[in-house]
Amino acid sequence: MNKKSEKETKKDMLKEISERVLRRVGMWYDKVEIEEPSLPTESDYHVEIEFHTKAGEDFLIELSIPSDSDDLSSDFADAMQSYADDFDVDEYVEPLIPFRGKHGVPESISELVHDAEDTKKLLDELAFAAKFEAMHDIDMDRAEA
Known about the structure:
By secondary structure, the chain is an alpha+beta fold. Helix content is 52%, strand content 16%.
């Protein structure tokens, strides 16, 4: 019998948590990838969620989860909340303006801003769903105890 290492188990759990949160908001996504710490200087798992915005832009969410986490659901929720809180529509749109109409960037500035606002709302929904999942996991742990 091949027993998984703790890193592999946590990696699988993070992928499952990520996909449950995405399904909870009904989100279509292209990829969820989890990279475990590979160097002695790295201490975090890296979660990457790739999807397309409503206007068709490629978007990548990158989260870091501590490898010594005892509560992956809560740490995932905290990282998603932080990512959503840090997303700024103006900061996101500004560097894209010179690329309007190219490389999948909408032609219109107003469409670009509207798409970024929709993305901000989606990030907030993901953060809420992640918190809900974390609370659900805590309730399940208590029920099993």
